[in-house]
Amino acid sequence: MKSTYLVHISLPEVFTSRLAALIPKQRSMINDLLEQRIVLSYSLDMERQNLWVFVEAKSEKGVMDIISNFPIINEVKVEIKELAFYDSSPMGLPELIMN
Question: Phi-psi region for residue 40, left (φ > 0), alpha (ψ -120 to 50) or beta?
């Protein structure tokens, strides 16, 4: 059975050109994982110091297997917490109004 995990990624205070160059690959990978519903949510704070990633996996090792492939993984610090529950508002298409 899968659980939901919160991955807190602390970004470095100084954004190097190396890290900046990895961002397009990171976004592409995250978009793919969002489409597959492996990553449920991906957020960045306004100061660009913290990323929060909600991941669905069978175990913490499963989460590590996923995030170890992140292009930015060698540039950041990671903390993983298993969640007791994960609630979110329903996502879907807006209601069509036929006028």
Answer: alpha
